[in-house]
Structure formats: structure tokens, C-alpha cells
Amino acid sequence: LHTVDGGQTWQEQQNVLNLPKYTRPDLSEEDAIKQRVPQLYLEDLFLISVAFRNEQEGYVTGESGILLTTTDGGATWTNVSSGSFNTLLSIVPARTQHAAVATGVLGTVAVFNGEGWNDLTEIREHVLTWIRDVSFVRNGSFGLACGGKGTILVSHDGGKNWQVIETKKLTRAAEMAGKAV
């Protein structure tokens, strides 16, 4: 849906460009038919999160790695490759020189590098659960992401690089701090 009056009225959105033919855009038509991968229709989009950088630039995340962008306040959306086919659960737009970051299932963290989106496979290799949300301090340099099984990720460079925090170490440190009190 799209609004031009601050949410007073809404119009059905039909302007989505570059939508792939199948839910797995890397497949040829022949392979998609063999593997029974369904076609992707606009009305089938399962969208999950929306965030705007300013009044004109925004993002929407969704199932199957769907990542839509707008530069005209949401009048038109364009599907861009997130670098992943995993469902994306959240997105934080870029601030100044820092990265835009999308998170999702199976340890998915996708980062916009100024030219395109990259799925950080090194995180997916170590994090076998969902990453639900991400947040940055006001200046955008320090960020945290959290997810299933107590997963915590930290970034000190605006989201370009992430480190998995061992929650067992945090629990042990908290227990030690409690004993010291």
C-alpha cells in the first residue's frame, strides 16, 4: 500500500519493478519447473519490514531474500538482489558513510557496500539461527544485531564487518560479576 497524506488514505501499490519470475531468481525456467519452484507474482510477496532513510529513500524486506528500494517516497519500488535467498526480517538504512544492513533467517546479514548488496557468508557459516534485528548508535559506527539462541553480533565500523559474540562468555562474566558484588 502507498500513502501520500501521512496515512489518512491508502492506495494499492502496483509499481514494483525488476521482480524475478521465480522465487529463486538464480534458476533457469527449465530448472525452476523441474524443481517445482513457484512463479513469483506481486500479490504473493510476503513483506516483513520497512524502513526509510529519509522522506524519499526507503527499503522493504521480505521472504526469499526480497529487498525492495524506493527513491521517490514509495511511489515506485525496485527489487534489488540482497545476495541471499533467505527471508529478510529487518533492515537499517545507511547513515552517512556507514552501511545499510538487512538481517534474516539462517544467520543472514546482507550489507550494502555502495554499489550492491553482499550476503556475509562468513556469518552464516557460524550462526545457524535467525538474526531478528539490528540497531546502531546515533553516529552509526557501533551496531548490535540479535537473534535466536541468544545470538549477538557486534560491528565497530558501521556494519561493514561483524563479529559473533560468544554468549557463554557473557553468561560466565555476568556470573563472575555477581559473585564479586
SSE blueprint and pairings:
Blueprint lengths: L15 E2 L11 H6 L12 E6 L5 E5 L3 E5 L6 E5 L6 E5 L8 E4 L4 E4 L4 E3 L1 H4 L6 E6 L6 E5 L4 E4 L7 E3 L1 H14 L1
Parallel strand pairs: 1-5
Antiparallel strand pairs: 2-3, 3-4, 4-5, 6-7, 7-8, 8-9, 10-11, 11-12, 12-13
Q: Which key terms come to mind for this protein?
A:
4-stranded antiparallel β-sheet; 5-stranded mixed β-sheet; globular; 181 residues; single chain; alpha+beta
Q: Could you report the average pLDDT, rounded to the nearest whole number?
A: 86
For the biggest β-sheet, the strand order reads 1-5-4-3-2
Quote the distance from N terminus to C terminus. 54 Å
Over the alpha carbons, how many angstroms does the gyration radius reach? 18 Å
Descriptive account of the structure:
This protein has helices spanning 29-34, 121-124, 167-180; strands at residues 16-17, 47-52, 58-62, 66-70, 77-81, 88-92, 101-104, 109-112, 117-119, 131-136, 143-147, 152-155, 163-165. With 181 residues, the chain is an alpha+beta fold. The strands form 3 sheets. The protein has a 5-stranded mixed beta sheet, with no helix packed on it. A 4-stranded antiparallel beta sheet has the order 6-7-8-9. A 4-stranded antiparallel beta sheet has the order 10-11-12-13. The longest helix has 14 residues, at 167-180. It is globular and about 60 Å long.
